[in-house]
Design goal:
Length: 395
């Protein structure tokens, strides 16, 4: 991939880092973009070029559209969306994989763990770039492995599919997401793990959200809760609690306040007996339930919106939570604030969400909608709001 060598790119990166984001050091930028500190320094000094992938990562870390850093200031070139066809192609032959190398299972485990970290950190560009090869390799491994390794490889494949699905869903490729969910269900059956099946049922709800089939989604989640293992271990309690959290939100979208509250109460009770952690790929615990309280309130709308504001006055998500969940809290809060006439507060919440997880925030449809509304509400647009709206492609 050719590198952009125009020195103006480095100057613009330095400008956004030191002026627009004045508290961001070169080390902060390097850490956020997963780029070596020495590389950042050389790019800013104009001593080396920057590839499209690196520019995308730096732009995400700065919270700006990569087009604002390019020498031609042309339209942004979204690397993640461009790579989606390769991701789709990689799963087409799941039942008849091609020949190729397969690493030892320990190496595959490490690669999947990395993909999970990318998912929890909303690194969608890295997911769609690197997951196609990993998915193909895992599929080959599953079809050729000895029986003793079959169940673990199936679990690894579910986890890898989930990371790929997170990127597809967040980038709006809902048909691809639905296909990945079905493959997750297939692989989970191969693993013969009831807790893994419950985790997949949690993710499957995305297809109902995308189709706005909230009633059907609620029925599917109730069936999954009934089929989930008894809550006799921390893992089983977390699996069941996560399903109740998800059911509460989709009940809220269906405007079924009683069902939403019932499922939220069940999730709250289960969260009291587990510590906040990531179980089978899903964060669950007291903090996650609080975030879902906000989500339910926003989903129900109307008089319930004040409940979201009450939660935010008393509590903020800790930095130990996954980035996607934390940024989601502020995106939901921004909508509640906007509906309550708190335009300035809504914009501040959107900026916090961007700082936590730039790519997740930029590609969230609610962010674009709310940024557009904020621009219309303000008679004299501030440069910062205009820049934010351009960054997330708000109309």
């Amino acid at each position: 991939m050719p590198a952009i060598t125009d020195g103006g790119v480095g100057r613009r990166i330095a400008y956004y880092r030191s002026v627009v984001r004045p508290k961001m050091t070169q080390q902060d930028l390097a850490d956020a973009a997963c780029v070596a500190l020495g590389t950042i320094r050389k790019i800013e000094r104009g001593e080396r070029g920057v590839t499209d992938d690196t520019l995308q990562a730096i732009a995400d870390a700065l919270g700006v559209d990569p087009g604002r850093l390019r020498h031609d200031r042309g339209p942004a070139h979204t690397q993640a969306r461009d790579a989606l066809p390769a991701l789709s192609a990689s799963i087409a032959a799941y039942d008849c994989p091609d020949d190729g190398p397969v690493r030892p299972i320990a190496d595959l485990r490490s690669a999947v763990d990395t993909a999970v970290r990318w998912r929890l950190g909303t690194q969608y560009t890295r997911i769609v770039r690197d997951l196609p090869d990993l998915l193909a390799e895992l599929t080959r491994a599953l079809h050729t492995a000895p029986a003793a390794e079959h169940a673990e490889l199936a679990r690894l494949l579910v986890s890898a599919y989930r990371s790929a699905d997170a990127a597809a869903y967040k980038l709006g490729a809902h048909d691809l997401s639905a296909r990945l969910v079905e493959l997750m269900r297939w692989a989970a059956a191969e693993a013969e793990d009831p807790l893994l099946a419950a985790s997949v049922a949690y993710v499957r709800t995305e297809t109902f959200f995308a189709a706005r089939a909230h009633g059907a989604g609620l029925r599917a989640l109730r069936q999954a809760i009934d089929a989930a293992p008894a809550p006799s271990t921390a893992g089983a309690r977390a699996a069941r609690g996560a399903l109740h959290m998800r059911a509460a939100v989709i009940a809220g979208r269906a405007k079924d306040a009683d069902a939403a509250q019932d499922h939220l109460s069940e999730a709250t009770e289960l969260a009291r007996s587990v510590k906040e952690d990531v179980y089978y790929g899903t964060a669950f615990g007291p903090d996650s339930v609080r975030i879902h309280q906000v989500s339910v309130a926003v989903s129900l709308g109307g008089d319930h919106v004040s409940d979201a504001l009450t939660v935010s006055h008393e509590w903020k998500p800790p930095t130990t939570l996954p980035d996607e969940r934390r940024s989601g809290f502020y995106i939901e809060l921004a909508r509640a604030q906007l509906w309550s006439g708190m335009a300035d507060g809504a914009f501040e919440s959107l900026k916090v969400a961007r700082k936590i997880a730039p790519q997740h925030t930029r590609d969230h449809p609610w962010v674009r909608e709310d940024a557009s509304t904020l621009r219309r509400l303000r008679r004299a647009d501030s440069e910062t709001l205009t820049s934010f709206a351009e960054w997330c492609a708000a109309t």
